[in-house]
Design goal:
The structure is a homodimer. With about 350 residues, the first copy, chain A, is α/β, with parallel strands linked by helices. Chain A has 14 helices and eleven strands. Chain A has a seven-stranded mixed sheet with strand order 1-2-9-6-5-3-4, sandwiched between helices. In chain A, α5 runs parallel beside α9 and α11 packs antiparallel against α12.
């Protein structure tokens, strides 16, 4: 089992990465001084696969466990579900020393984190992510939230988990397309921070896609280490942390204009990474060969990189202007200079952006 | 104008106390580096009195101000109103650098603070409290939240304001009963922390009740200083901060069993302070003369201290057991030892509590 420490003063916590460790959840949690009353939040798909294992281990460790099941899907990441969770937690009399355990992907993690941060002004949250995306991204770093009909993740908090407990075995039940979407974020870490991780992905494609234990633990560990390093330096995204948004300015817009049904988040980010690299080249910040290396890696993993012709470029631009990262109308981009190094560009000229969206 | 600093590392902020300073709100806020887009949250009563003054000063300072009016009353401090506020803020495109200004009493302050802490994962909140209770208590210290039908303030966050801006002139429009309810919290500060403040209240009753400028600024300043000192040492109520709950264990229960219609919060706290002092005496922690001094001061200000006969003692006890301060069923009390000094009692025997509720 590998351990990574996220250093955040009194909010520091550990990420554990291993295999076949779900039945150890209860024993681990019994060390945290929580109230016996805890709740597990999951969705029907994940709970059917791993619920019994996790719940059993928690009960064996003496916890008085209540389970809250949320319907599967991003469309349920809203304030109505929050209300349901609050109702359940209060009915079951969870107290200030209680903990919430998120068993699932990003939706479950975000909504559970938000509930934990606002129930009785904040209780413990334990992340047990079961998708690659959640394991390398959303379960680490403390971003929580729900969607609003006027925008994704508009309502939320920064609330660090007490523990992140990653079992790579859960990836074996993950649909291939979701695995690839998670890999897009791993590729992102390579571009923004770590040329060696990028090179590892280039030369270990078969092993990674085949879920070779050693290869997959390596890329999750490196991703978590990079995210931990960045978050430790800038918890609330005042500066450095914004580099994690590489690919996301255009990526989010692509997701938005296609109504969140055509692309998974990671697929949108994959397209965003290539187009933002192209923008970087257009602004003379990156060489063409670096941009092509990014496109080649995305293509080799079967991720999308080009914008389909039927997506309206004006709608994309408008969507970017409405993004919550946009302050006072200025488009903000994370632009790669070379693999492993990016810069933040706070006022990219609209013309260049428009051009980078063309083929 | 008096200034008090609340020291909380990067979350430190100033409280200003003065008179006729509402028209200076805009000029003050223009120093905070906020986005031009800001929102003022208020209720119809307060907005009719002071809205124009504050809004005018903000507009004069160049802010693009939007106003959100919430119906007056504790029953509107709920998630539905939160949803309304989120809708408005998103429609008006407030961004991550925007601020929310709470103009009103505790309800407006709590709900605005909660909205600020959760809009786009946290934006600036400015408290402009217009009731004595909010000026000496709820606007300072960062507790935010809304009620749930299963309990008060069950959903919320700790979110420190950027500024607290107190104009004592607003007290002139405050109903006498609400002024007295606020004074209950001032008396509380005397009991838990400052014998001199308690003595000042004893010997300056006429001036305080007559809203003599110097006397009223003095008690607000001392109350804020005491709260600031306590909150600086224990922001999230891990220990010391709990002493602020003196009178609140029984007080909350009194409010709850009477359906929040019979007593104002401060009146419940007044009853709670006397009964908890009596409990302290019963447990041999306080002398009788200290308890009587507390009762005399409450009585002299026309605040309630005795529990009416028609309130069922079993319902009170049950309500205390359901309180969110109660962990694992143990009743927690703040018990005065003498005026100016209290201790926290984590497991008061139920029999003694029951006895202290009898006349």
């Amino acid at each position: 089992m590998k351990k990574i420490r996220v250093e955040l003063a009194e909010r520091s916590y550990d990420i554990f990465i291993g295999s076949n460790m779900l039945d150890g959840t209860g024993a681990k949690l019994s060390l945290f001084g929580l109230s016996p009353k805890i709740a597990l939040i999951s969705n029907p798909t994940v709970f059917a696969l791993y619920g019994e294992l996790v719940a059993g281990s928690l009960k064996k460790a003496g916890f008085d466990l209540h389970t809250v099941i949320i319907p599967d899907g991003e469309e349920y990441k809203d304030l109505r579900q929050m209300q349901n969770i609050y109702d359940e937690l209060l009915k079951q009399k969870l107290d200030r020393s209680s903990g919430l355990i998120a068993l699932g992907g990003g939706v479950i993690g975000d909504i559970t984190g938000f509930a934990a941060s606002t129930y009785m002004r904040g209780i413990s949250c334990i992340q047990v992510p079961t998708t690659l995306l959640a394991q390398v991204d959303s379960s680490v770093g403390g971003k929580t939230g729900v969607n609003h009909r006027l925008g994704k993740n508009m309502i939320g908090t920064f609330w660090q988990p007490r523990l992140v407990w990653i079992d790579v075995e859960t990836l074996k039940s993950l649909p291939k397309r979701e695995l690839l979407a998670g890999l897009a974020e791993v590729i992102k870490y390579g571009v923004i921070y770590d040329g060696a991780l990028f090179a590892f992905l280039e030369s270990n494609r078969e092993k990674v896609l085949g879920l070779d234990n050693e290869a997959i633990m390596h890329i999750i560990k490196r991703s978590c280490e990079i995210k931990a390093a960045i978050v430790s330096k800038d918890e609330r995204e005042a500066g450095l942390r914004a580099i994690l948004n590489y690919g996301h300015t255009i990526g989010h817009a692509v997701e938005t204009v296609t109504g969140y049904t055509r692309y998974l988040h990671g697929e949108g980010v994959a397209i965003g990474m290539y187009l933002e690299a192209r923008l970087s080249q257009m602004l003379d910040l990156a060489d063409k060969d670096q941009v092509l290396r990014i496109k080649s890696l995305l293509d080799s993993y079967g991720l999308p990189s080009e914008l389909p012709d039927d997506i309206d470029k004006d709608s994309l631009l408008l969507s970017m202007q409405l993004d919550k990262k946009t302050v006072a109308g200025k488009l903000k981009f994370v632009l790669p200079e070379k693999i492993g190094k990016v810069r933040i560009e706070k006022g990219a000229p609209e013309e260049a952006v428009r051009e980078s969206l063309q083929k």
